[in-house]
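Appendix B. One record, verbatim.
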Amino acid sequence: MDDIATWHPHAIADHAMVSDGQTGALVHRDGTIDWLCLPHFDSEPCFAALLGNGENGAWWLAPTEEVVRSHRRYRGDTMILETEYETANGSVRVTDFMPAARGAAPDIVRIVEGLSGSVCMRNRMALRFAEGRVHPRVSPMRDKEDPDAAPVLRATALAGPNAVMLDFSQPLRARDGHEETHFTIHAGQCEHFVMTWYPSHASPPDPVDVDKALAETEKWWSDWSRRNRYDGPDRAIVMRSLLAIRGLVQDETGGMLGALTAGLPESPGGARNWDYRFCWLRDATFALLALLRAGYRDEAREWIHWLYRALAGEPIAVQPFYTIDGGRIATEREASWLEGFAGARPVRFGNGAADQLQLDVYGEAIDALFVARNENLIEDGQLILELGMQLEKMWSAPDDGIWESRGKREHHVYSKAMCWVAFDRVTRLLQETGETDPEGRDAEHWRALANTVRAQVMERGFDKDVGAFTQSYGSRDLDAAVLRLPLVGFIDANDPRMLGTVAAIEQELMREGYVWRYKTNGSDGLEGEEGAFLACSSWLVDVYIGQGRDEDARTLFDRIAASANDLNLLSEEYLPEKRMMLGNFPQVLSHVAVINNAFGLAVGSGRIDRYQRG
């Protein structure tokens, strides 16, 4: 690869993630880092080749010789990635990680270790700030006592507010728009390459002590992983799912991203390409329950604190998602200079769905707070009451639905059912405390309201001719979101109406053994198709468990697990006929659903445990 503009990522599944709790990077199996936002998860990417080509920013580190065999893995239960390459002349290991708990300056460390023989290597970096557009000014950091000394091992790259220090153990050489190093690695030899971000108005930070940082990072992740209390037969994918979730939590705020990436398509070459680098209340509340099940109370508590800050304001107006620090602005725009992953355009940054009305998030937030109170993570139910009272004013309105439709608002069945969840949890809170809401109304008022909502859903949300709960009132279209109705206690999994709904979804929304969200017939205001939605497939696993269909549950769970890549990382969607990952990656909602499946399978047939039902 002599022309960096010719490099393109080939498959979403080819990527691994490394993270330090401030930001994260994707590492392609060929040794290319093609996605990195600095200094935070939701900052502008400085490596954006994932959504374009190498000219949009990437960092390559791999043999120049033909690779005859390669293998990658995470070191134990950590976020330290190890990739081994074998050539005709020898073998080499590249270790990629982001030092944990180093401070305000995020770093990426790459260590090259010779394992046998000798291997010719190339280290090439093309930094591009402003979402893949701006070339930084790169300046060598020469020895003050001998400024003409060669070779140059350190340099700074500046562009606007951003600065990066490069600290390499092999000399830097400037090429056309990038920096490059060629070297030969011999058995027993180690070289390191470190990139550290800092504000351009500040002095460069101290260099990373590579050996110390590696040891500290391994200990940090290993200590965290040992707190996992799941020890069932599916532990490998559960542990990696927990690590993926933790890798998408920002240490400073406790906010949790929906995914690391923006703009990865939901169909090959399609236009359904969204920015998921935000904190979705729905996804994060599901994740909170999974974290509690696995024993991670501290992370659950931090997210509850984040939720309190994000919802602050009077009156409460809940958005579907927020920025990672709890902010509300997520202006959507198109990046016309990026050609898109495999030509999927437009590439979007920001997300206009922040302005949508999604009534279900009230139910999910209240349900999470109700569980948190039962787990003694919060002391009172004041926010539950405030959210419930706000929803009482709104629940009868049509909304945009769980899937962020860009079409007209409807009375979505799942949204209404989650309004029932909200009012049911308020009722139970007041029953437990014997108190009243701020307007002096007791549990009986809220129970009556919950009953009203439930009766409406049963009457208008279930179509007798279809034999199933549908997507919206008056519609005959199906929606896999209603699989969650028994999981939140709205209806028994073996109720004839739910049995009919599952049968209809199996008939209409399943293909190749996976579940699609709904039929994309244009009613959502968008063009094009999408893949199977992995979380919906997992929700069907949970319903199968509740219905006592153990064999079906295990078969579907194993199928979902098999759609993960070789590192047990999951995307948002999957195209089974092409065995292709689709959508943003790694996806929190997919990993959360798999964790819940594993715990559900362990709980046993015919049961939906307390974390699923509040």
